[in-house]
Design goal:
The protein is α+β, with helices and mostly antiparallel strands and about 160 residues long. The protein has a domain at about 10-110. It is built from three helices and six strands. The mean pLDDT is about 85.
Length: about 160
């Protein structure tokens, strides 16, 4: 799948691949994911965080294992965020260096809305798999399922 420069991905932590993240960064594609606890990194810069915010820490980091894959060091961001709903600290890994740390956290949080949408699509509309793999085929199947859901919900 080809992604356009400027695209922002909200990636599940299970798909952490630092070489891929480095390539995305070099291609101008942005991402936000949860950082694995065993990630080896070097802190390049510590950024100031707002006082009355859920952002606990904001760092610019590099991942030493990527040095062999790229001559230029690829910089990322490590954000510690307090999730008041679950009363836990979430650590995000992103290449969104130009946005506020709270915005990067919000992008990842909104990923759950997408998860819930696809869960509802699978359960209610009985969409178990997509008939095609290109963007047009997927969009057509989703729109068809949504229209069917709207018709069914107005008939009840």
């Amino acid at each position: 799948m080809r992604l356009k420069a400027g695209t922002i991905l909200a990636v599940d932590r299970g798909y952490n691949d630092y070489v891929w993240f480095g390539q995305l960064t070099l291609d101008g594609i942005f991402f936000v994911t949860r950082m694995k606890t065993n990630t080896v990194y070097t802190t390049v810069e510590v950024r100031a965080v707002p006082e009355k915010d859920n952002v606990l820490s904001d760092q610019i980091i590099s991942v030493p294992s990527l040095r062999k894959h790229s001559e230029t060091p690829v910089l990322f961001r490590r954000i510690e965020y307090w999730n008041a709903d679950k009363e836990e600290i979430l650590v995000f890994f992103t290449n969104l260096l130009h946005l506020a740390a709270s915005t990067a956290a919000a992008i990842y949080k909104d990923r759950w809305q997408i998860e819930l949408f696809f869960k509802a699509l699978k359960q209610t509309a009985k969409v178990k798999s997509f008939l095609g793999t290109n963007a047009n085929a997927v969009k057509t199947q989703i729109w068809t399922a949504l229209i069917a859901l709207l018709i069914l919900s107005t008939c009840r």
